[in-house]
Amino acid sequence: MEPRNVDRAWHATRARAGLAWLRLHDLRHACATFLLASGASPRTVMKTLGHRQITLTMNTYAHVLAEVERAAMDAAADRLFG
Questions:
Q1: How far apart are CA 39 and CA 67, in angstroms?
Q2: DSSP classification of residue 18
Q3: Highest taxon of the source (predicted)?
Q4: Which of 64, 6, 56, 69 lies closest to 30, judged by CA?
Q5: Which of 23, 24, 48 has its CA nearest to residue 34?
Q6: Across the chain, how many H-helices and E-strands are there?
Q7: Mean pLDDT across the chain, nearest whole number?
Q8: CA–CA separation, 75 vs 36, rounded Å?
Q9: In the 8-state DSSP scheme, what is residue 53?
Q10: Could you tell me the residue ranges of all domains in the chain?
Q11: Alpha-carbon separation of residue 73 from 38, 55, 65, 80 (angstroms)
Q12: What is each CA distance from 77 to 38, 63, 65, 67, 81, in whole angstroms?
């Protein structure tokens, strides 16, 4: 794909959707966030995003994992203690 064509199509699409503030990179970040929140492993997210090292993925999205872990702990506590 020609980068110029992708960029042109992206600008037209977001303008039609009324999302002028949304960057194409924001979709990439959202994809990683949703994958992690859905329980995907960090290595799966790394491969999906095309990162070569897991440290880049973890350093960028570690905050999401903390939220997922907290939700899991809360759910387990609810099951155990009502």
A1: 11
A2: T
A3: Bacteria
A4: 64
A5: 48
A6: 4, 0
A7: 90
A8: 17
A9: S
A10: 22-81
A11: 15, 24, 12, 10
A12: 19, 21, 18, 15, 6
Tell me the two tokens of residue 53. Answer: 């090292």
Tokens representing 32 are 């990683």
What angle do the packed helices 24-37 and 54-81 form, to 10 degrees? 40
Residue labelled with tokens 């992690």: 36
Q: Which residues contact 39 (CB under 8 A, 6 or more apart)?
A: 68
Tens-digit pLDDT profile for residues 21-67: 999 999 999 999 889 888 899 999 999 999 999 999 989 888 877 88
User: CA 2 to CA 7: how far, in whole Å?
Assistant: 9
Confirm if 70 and 82 have CB atoms less than 8 A apart.
no
Residue 7 amino acid letter: D
In 3-state terms, what secondary structure has residue 38?
coil
